[in-house]
Each structure stands twice: as structure tokens, then as C-alpha cells.
Design brief:
Low-confidence stretches: none
Strand content: 15-25%
Oligomer: single chain
Distance between the termini: 23 Å
Number of domains: 1
Mean pLDDT: 85
Bound molecules: zinc ion
Helix content: 40-55%
Number of strands: 6
Length: 118
């Protein structure tokens, strides 16, 4: 299985608008059979959306589209003088490249391992 994408999310740098391409006929059959039963890869958060960030249209994933908020000026001011702590943002729900590679490794082990064929 090959995952192809053209853009990355502007905020979290995860790949967006993924296009899975099966390499072999067996993978093609499995992918097109199981995608109606149960989505084999949860890519619904890696869809591409446009969001206005800093007066420019940016390509973001759907997770960042729904959760991103710009930091207001008073919060930046309070951070500078030490009135409030810096809060880290939550990890977005879209899949990163490492998670995709992990899924691909697990899929190859499931499909082509020597235990299943013996
Ligand atoms: Zn994102």
C-alpha cells in the first residue's frame, strides 16, 4: 500500500488529502472490500480544509480546522510579563507520518507474514 499526498497541514504538519494506492491485487481486493465494512485506516481527520490564519488562506487538516484558535493579544502580553503559564495545545487527532508508517508495517505483517501461510 502506498499513501500519496500533495499537501501538509499548516499548523500540525501532518499529511492531508491522502490517497491510498494498493500495490498488489490482493491489497486492492482487501481494501475495497473492507472499506465498506470498517474503515481500515482512520483518515477522516486528514481531510483538507481551508482556514483563514493571519489574513491568508491556509490548508489545514479537519482536526486543526475545528480546534485551532488564534492566541489573543492579552494572553501574549500576560505570558511576556509572567502573569500566566504557557499552555500547550492538545495533540491533533489527524494521523502523522510516523503513525501511517506504523500502520503500513502492521498491515504488511498481517498480510504477508510467514505465520499465516504455514
Ligand atoms: Zn493539522
Amino acid at each position: 500500500m502506498i499513501f500519496r499526498w500533495n499537501y501538509k497541514c499548516f499548523l500540525c504538519n501532518h499529511p492531508i488529502d491522502l490517497d491510498p494506492i494498493p500495490e498488489t491485487h490482493y491489497e486492492w481486493l482487501a481494501y475495497y472490500q473492507y472499506r465498506f465494512v470498517y474503515n481500515p485506516v482512520p483518515l477522516f481527520m486528514n481531510r483538507m480544509y481551508y482556514k483563514t490564519i493571519g489574513e491568508k488562506m491556509r490548508r489545514v487538516c479537519s482536526s486543526c480546522f475545528s480546534t485551532y484558535k488564534p492566541v489573543p493579544f492579552r494572553v501574549l502580553r500576560d505570558r511576556e510579563v509572567g502573569l500566566c503559564r504557557v499552555r500547550t495545545t492538545n495533540q491533533p487527532l489527524s494521523l502523522s507520518i510516523d503513525e501511517l508508517m506504523e500502520w503500513l508495517g502492521g498491515m504488511e505483517e498481517f498480510f504477508y507474514s510467514s505465520r499465516n501461510h504455514s
